[in-house]
Amino acid sequence: MTLAPHSQSHIDRPSTAVDNVIFSVIDNDLHVLLVKRGEVPFPKEWSIVGGFVDTHKDNDLEATAQRKLIEKTGISAPYLEQFKTIGSANRDPRCWSITTIYFSLLPFSELKPTDEHVEAAQWFKLEEAINMPLAFDHAEILKDCADRLRSKVLYTSLPVHLMPETFTLSELQKVYETIIGETIDQKSFRRRILNTDILIETDMTKQTSKRPAKLYIRNPELDTHFFTRNIEGPNRQN
Amino acid sequence: MTLAPHSQSHIDRPSTAVDNVIFSVIDNDLHVLLVKRGEVPFPKEWSIVGGFVDTHKDNDLEATAQRKLIEKTGISAPYLEQFKTIGSANRDPRCWSITTIYFSLLPFSELKPTDEHVEAAQWFKLEEAINMPLAFDHAEILKDCADRLRSKVLYTSLPVHLMPETFTLSELQKVYETIIGETIDQKSFRRRILNTDILIETDMTKQTSKRPAKLYIRNPELDTHFFTRNIEGPNRQN
DNA sequence: CCTGTTTAATCGCAAGTTGCAAGTAATTGA
DNA sequence: TCAATTACTTGCAACTTGCGATTAAACAGG
Predict the structure, then answer these.
(1) What is the rounded CA–CA span in Å between residue B81 and residue B86?
(2) Is the pLDDT of residue B109 over 80?
């Protein structure tokens, strides 16, 4: 049996893209990776990594996200999560367009764009990036996506995807605090994390000129852990 | 200045749709509204409400979701939330396709499809619908979407959007329990809800042949409330 | 070699929340 | 008038968290 012709003709289809907000924590600051556009509209403006779905190359949306990231920066993203989809007649001056927005988390040990991308891909502090004139509606996307990340960090183990292969609990706590923007009680934090199986304690310690701290790795067998309570921060009990 | 031609040609664009999982609670059971397809592929099979983005009629994705819902059932959805977007080369036998999936919550007082839709739109218990042969990947979408709803109900005030204009706390608790699938401690539930501003107490009571219960309305000035703790259910403290 | 400093890790507890059970209250129907 | 049913309130044991204090493991400097 032959299939009926598709009822959405090609000419009536929106343009379809993927955008990917790449986060990392560098020097205790949340950073975002931006790329510089070449073509109009918005030539030479910084923007979020992304591009069109290629129906010949990409098998699904995540494949598009990964392909565009590697094409534009030379970096690939071990952790990729869908944030939301925006589609409207207004966001691109040329046509109806849809973009599915992801965010990626990158350990700061894997940050460097490859040589041929150094000029057109760059890390910015999030607070700086939000206040730059970015292409399209990317400043707002960035802000909303960061808000989502900030929320999720309160009740999940997401920040472990920002850590290098081994790390200490104090380093992990510092990353949590960097994203949330407040201090976390050290006792509560350790208890919270060690009451789960999200980390595996190694035999190694990190030797600096202080008391050596135990080193941990992320438990690769587990997905993101969802806590039943949010981190509540200083004096929030009432 | 004229804009550069769009770099994603029309013929290379995926088909672009919106799907909308419509939930309600009827007789203490979570239900979902399905419609019967006419055209191939999957003729005469039940499916989730949805359809293609119309770039001439729709200003954005939510407009598509609302338009398709009214076209197919005569019902409109006061509460609409984006769930996720699926896009791949594999989900439609004809072409690369993307769908942005929403879910809607409908009070059971607003359930009836209009007369001309009665035959092709019908409410099913969720447990039945999940086990029916639905078009495309709709059974899996349904299941995943219900899982999302179940999760969100543990830490948000979402179920108030399933209530009629006035309702009692016991009725609200019953809806929470229906979705979660477990009982909730009555004292904890009342305290949790009444410690927020999500409901407004009315002067009225619901008079049945028992102690009259106070009637509440949803506070229309507030968005969904996010609790800092999940509902934890029987003997979950540890 | 000893000591001070810094950071990691642990201990103790007051304050607050929740789950459970019991009690009180407001109605209707028999 | 009273029993039954449901709504609503009270009380409390069990548990968790935030905060502060203490102990421990290192190194650098004297």
Answers:
(1) 15
(2) no
> How far is Cα B143 from Cα B129, in angstroms, rounded to an integer?
9
Highest mean pLDDT among A5-14, A226-235, B112-121: A226-235
A235 class by beta-carbon count within 10 Å (0-12 exposed, 13-18 middle, 19+ buried): exposed
Q: Closest nucleotide (CA of A188 to C1')?
A: D17
CATH architecture designation of domain B14-153: Alpha-Beta Complex (3.90)
pLDDT of A115 strictly over 90: no
User: What is the C-alpha separation between B6 and A30, in angstroms, rounded?
Assistant: 34
Nearest Cα residue in chain B from A60 = B88
**Which residues in range 209-228 of chain B are in contact with strand C, contact meaning CB within 7 A of any of its atoms?**
209-212
Query: Nearest-CA distance from A54 to chain B in Å?
Result: 7
Q: B53 vs A84: CB contact, 8 Å cut-off?
A: no
Query: What are the tens digits of pLDDT across the range B17-69?
Result: 999 999 999 988 999 999 988 777 777 889 999 999 999 999 999 999 999 99
The two three-digit tokens of residue B5, written as one number: 């031609």
In angstroms, how far is C30 C1' from B210 CA?
15
- C-alpha angle B149/B150/B155, rounded to 5°? 90
Q: Which residue approaches D28 most closely, CA to C1'?
A: A209
Give the Cα separation of A84 and B121 in Å (integer). 28
Q: Strand runs (DSSP E) across chain B, as ranges? A: 15-26, 29-36, 46-52, 79-88, 97-105, 121-125, 199-206, 213-218
CA atoms within 13 A on the CB side of A128: 11
**Bases of strand C lying below 7 A from some protein CB:** 5-12, 15-22, 25-29
Task: Out of 3.40.640.10, 3.40.50.300, 3.90.79.10, 3.40.50.970, select the CATH number for domain A13-153.
Answer: 3.90.79.10
Do B8 and A1 lie within an 8 Å CB cutoff? no
Say how far residue A90 (Cα) sits from the centre of its chain: 26
Find out whether the peptide bond into B41 is cis, omega within 30 degrees of 0: yes
> Given this structure, which CATH class describes domain B156-218?
mainly alpha
Domain ranges of chain B: 14-153, 156-218
Close Cβ partners of B134 (under 8 Å, ≥ 6 residues apart): B34, B45, B46, B47, B48, B142
B230 and A229 within 8 Å at the Cβ level: the answer is: yes
Q: Do B12 and A55 touch (CB under 8 A)?
A: yes
CA-to-CA distance for A134 and A114, rounded, in angstroms? 23
pTM: 0.90
Is any atom of strand D within 7 angstroms of residue B213's beta carbon?
Answer: yes
